[in-house]
Amino acid sequence: MAARNAGTARPGGPNRTCQFKLVLLGESAVGKSSLVLRFVKGQFHEYQESTIGAAFLTQTVCLDDATIKFEIWDTAGQERYHSLAPMYYRGAQAAIVVYDITNQESFQKAKNWVKELQRQASPNIVMALAGNKADVANKRTVEYEEANAYAEDNALLFMETSAKTSMNVNDIFMAIAKKLPIGPAQGEPTGTVDMNQPQQQQKGSCCK
Amino acid sequence: MSDKHGEEDKKAKMHLKANDLLCVNGCGFYGTPQWENRCSKCWRAHQNEMKKCQDFAKNRSLLSFDQFQERRKSTTESKSRGIKNLFKTSPIPEGGTSSPTSTSPASTPTRHSRRRELSPDSLEARQQFTDFLVANLSTGMAQEIARSVKNAVNKISEMRMSSDDMSELVMSYYQYLGERIGGHSLFDSPDCKVKVEDVMDQVEKYISTFCYSIFFCANHEEEVADMSLQDRIRSLHWVTAGFLETKMVFKKQTVRDKIDEAISELIEINAKRSAFEKLDCLTKSCKAIFEALKESEASTSADEFLPTLIYVLFRGNPPLIQSNVKFISRFAIPARLMSGEAAYFFTNLSCALEFARNMNHESLQMEKSEFEAYTSGHLAPPLSVINSACNQAIYVLEGTIETITNVAKKAGSLAKNLTNMHGKSDDDLEKMLAVIKETVDFYPTDEYMNMKQSIFAEEKETADILVSLSRQSSESGRGTLTDTQPSTPQPDTSLESPLIAEIQAINLTSSGNQEHVEEA
């Protein structure tokens, strides 16, 4: 089902382009959009950006055998809009749940998001957990080990990132790209990917 | 509420004040317990209010978005052959050179029998569709697609079924046609300018424009539901940007302009016929919101965008918005709503509507009674609260006053500068004249001297003429005057006096005198 919408892939040609929908979840003000802006535009301050709007952006990354086009859907993090989230992550092939390492509460919220995605999103969605604001590690309230253990338990990709210094920003998107099912053709179930990939990805993802 | 009631009853047994008999609304009339301590007028108003709420609650299930989203999802999966057969015409020949004779005989009479008056929109859509096909595809292919689509339109207009079934049918037709032309070798060749998606865009546009009256808001109940949603949004008019915690800076004219633009584009959705155009309006509206956010120097992330969209929705209260959203999700090509910018904005609009439907005191973090009082209009949001609607108006006023003050200040300084400038230019002129005079006096050129001399000579000549003139005239004047008025005092013999007399004569009397002067 996840691969159904990766449908713009043109079979034939050695380098296929696959489009994937990636949804960003997390409490407001944890830096969801900063993370994406850093990834897409390579800049940190939003008011510098030339494109209209940071809520919807696209970015292409190249892997060895395919080109992945990310379509990044930002979601409103305020509690009052929580119930609307399923509309956003419906049909998404990947999700990044973002929390702020200086804010314990945002980590708890992130856990709730993960739980909700596991329950309600499409079953082979690729999930990543991003502990943002790693540049202010001296104010940290969420320990790296704690989050890492949680991510391992739930088979999530995990990295601590900093949109400000761009630490691990590209890496986390690359890690997701590698984990996405670049199926041979559209419409084919690619459930096997999830079974094989996690172990080998987990190693690569835990860079510090 | 009931607790309060009970308390009042108890109180009434012990001690009854005149005030307790009055209507709870404080209108001054007496209330009755049957009417929850309201007077007849307030009771009726209250009942109307309650009825509206009930209507909305009743229609809520009809407004629900999830149902048909789910249904749409299932339709896009795979379709029964039976439905496909409905649309089946002859297959496309691989070579792309089909002869027009292969038209299924059944379709021609149907088309003629169902000829109806076409609206200008439909005619335009047909023209565009035909132009597109002719310009981009081979003749055989174009004919094939046109025939298939027209056939489908005719079948659709003959059918009477619910919107959801219709949606299923149209979706399966899109899928069927997409697959059929997608398999064609023509699109793989490098000199083909268009993609299958482009053709499908045109097909969608054509079908949705032609069958608009059948597709859109066909169900009376849906229309009623839409109306009650509109009522609901109207009753939430007090929910302003502040309550939604947007970071709009309403002081800025540019921000207000962009918000107005977003609102009018959102309203415009209802004026467009095809899903493609409707989504285009939505995209424009959302872009205007992003620009407004940028002008306010706020982040353009979803944290800011969604509340602003909700605010725009509340402010604009676009007509039949729910039906439009349903129309788009039912009859747009599924891929359009699965990915891309428009899909994102459409999801946001659906979310905003969902929020409007389900909004309650909890979503605004306030007391239930407070929420209800604001909604029913019994209470106005306090001025002091930063969230209030008035603050927004005050911001606007403040902004305007600021602008006016600035303008006035500028005008003042401008006037001052102007006066200074005048004074300075006068001074400068005087100085300059003095300098020129000095310079000329000190260094007189030959030309100047010549000029001076010639002027002097001319002056002298003129004086001489005048003198002789005055003499003549005084002589002749004396001759006439002596006959009539001997008592008149003699004019002075000085040089000036006859001159003046002469000038007066010239001014007053006939041309004979002038000739006289000229002769002289």
UniProtKB/TrEMBL annotation, chain A:
GO function term, MF aspect, one: GTPase activating protein binding
UniProt superkingdom: Eukaryota
Compartments where located: Early endosome
Coiled coil feature spans: none
GO cellular component, one term: cholinergic synapse
InterPro entries reported for this sequence: P-loop_NTPase, Small_GTP-bd, Small_GTPase
Gene Ontology biological-process annotations: apical protein localization; embryo development ending in birth or egg hatching; endocytosis; intracellular protein localization; intracellular protein transport; phagosome maturation involved in apoptotic cell clearance; presynaptic dense core vesicle exocytosis; protein secretion
Region (Disordered): 187-208
Enzyme class: hydrolase
UniProt cross-references to SUPFAM superfamilies, sorted A to Z: P-loop containing nucleoside triphosphate hydrolases
UniProt record similarity statement: Belongs to the small GTPase superfamily. Rab family.
Matching NCBIfam families: small_GTP
Name recorded for this polypeptide: small monomeric GTPase
Gene giving rise to this polypeptide: rab-5
From TrEMBL, chain B:
PROSITE patterns: VPS9, ZF_A20
Listed InterPro entries: DUF5601, VPS9, Vps9-like, VPS9_dom_sf, Znf_A20
Cellular-component GO terms for this entry: cytosol; endocytic vesicle
Start and end residues of each stretch annotated as Disordered: 70-122, 469-498
Domain A20-type: 17-51
GO molecular function: DNA binding; guanyl-nucleotide exchange factor activity; small GTPase binding; zinc ion binding
One GO term (biological process): vesicle-mediated transport
Biased composition (Polar residues): 469-479
Domain VPS9 residues, every copy: 223-365
Keywords for this protein: Metal-binding, Zinc, Zinc-finger
Biased composition (Basic and acidic residues): 70-80
Pfam families: DUF5601, VPS9, zf-A20
Bias kind Low complexity: ranges: 89-110, 480-495
Protein name (record): Rab5 GDP/GTP exchange factor
Lineage of the species this protein comes from: Eukaryota, Metazoa, Ecdysozoa, Nematoda, Chromadorea
Gene it is expressed from: rabx-5
